[in-house]
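== Protein entry: sequence and backbone fold ==
=== Local backbone shapes as whole numbers ===
==== Amino acids and backbone structure tokens ====
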Amino acid sequence: MRRRYQIDQQRAVQQFRQLAREENPNIQMIFPMAEVVGLLQEGVGHLLREAGLSLMNLVMEEEVRHLAGERHEQHPARRAHRWGKEDGYCVVDGQKVPIQRTRLRTQENREQRLGSYELFQRRGPLEHGVWDKMMRGLSTRNYGAVVKDFHEAYGVEKSAVSDNFIAASREKLQELMERPLSELRLCAVLIDGTPFRDRQMIVALGINSDGRKTVLGLREGATENATVVSELLSDLASRGLDFGVPRLYVVDGGKALAAAVRRLAGEAAFLQRCQVHKRRNVIDHLPEEHKPAVKKKLQNAYAMSEYVDAKRALERLHRELMELNPSAARSLEEGMEETLTVHRLRVPSQLRRTLASTNVIESAFSIVETVCRNVKRWRAGDHIERWVGSGLLVAERQFRKVQGYREIPALLTALANAVSKKTVVEQGKVA
């Protein structure tokens, strides 16, 4: 429930916008040439900033005249009268700059807010300015020294900057976690659990039919945790992601994740186990002297174009590993068929390399690591989630279309044909 002062603020802003829309008074600003020359001694930026402050004062005075009439004149229709002046501030480029405002009282002896002043003072630009600069690598300690453009500016101290960043990053995280997904036409969804600062973060990323990438969701937890992955996928569904549409799901080796996808998407789910994860898991079982040769054979097998050739190469390697290291052989055998889904669908080579692994998510996390490089101490609560969410939004800005995006129509056709075959088989079983 909104408080009285919030209602008064909103009403004042609406009245100010109505004044601008309906009466549209002219605001004239006169600067003596000598003053301009003096301000230019400190550069054009200084001139523009001081001119901006003067313009704000003029705008507020025009609104005061509209509400209270001309000073020392009788104005029967006025809604308020002047009540002195008060020191305040406006927000400019992520800093608070002192400014004086005229106070007004209504006929009922209540504070009459100025809509223009409320707009000049909005915290949104302040918080978002802090967020943007910190995403570019500026630390809270150095923030004031870098951004302070006005001699009298304040609100750029380390503690104030930190508070503003917390508010902005929470808002960004909420934006990421709540944005609707119904308009996306996704041909593939990638889901991977990535270690980050001794935690495990699960990220879902979608690839649109035009090749563009979108971060879909984020959770803290492991892909082996059935509760966490089910909650993530259910959240995507509640925000409009249609799991009934046939698409590729590229996942790491988490069994709980694969089961949750199958449960939600059913026959429309085509699971592709990440080949990079599989390769790492197999090689981790081997002694150092055997790792290069086995790694090369795995790479060669997955690089083959035909499903039959790739499967034959993996089965041959499996037999070799049974002699060399049965644990590695069992690791290769587990989920082997799902590592070849892109081969079985005959996805063209360039797009197949993109969709054969969750490397797209790992690349996004390299940007998250860069964004978070100035954080020295991680705290409890939503600290990690806020930073990772912010970093993923920065990464999203830098996303390009996936390699092989021109081959996506072939993937969509293959998915549709595969679903049709599944339907025919199921109907045959029923008959």
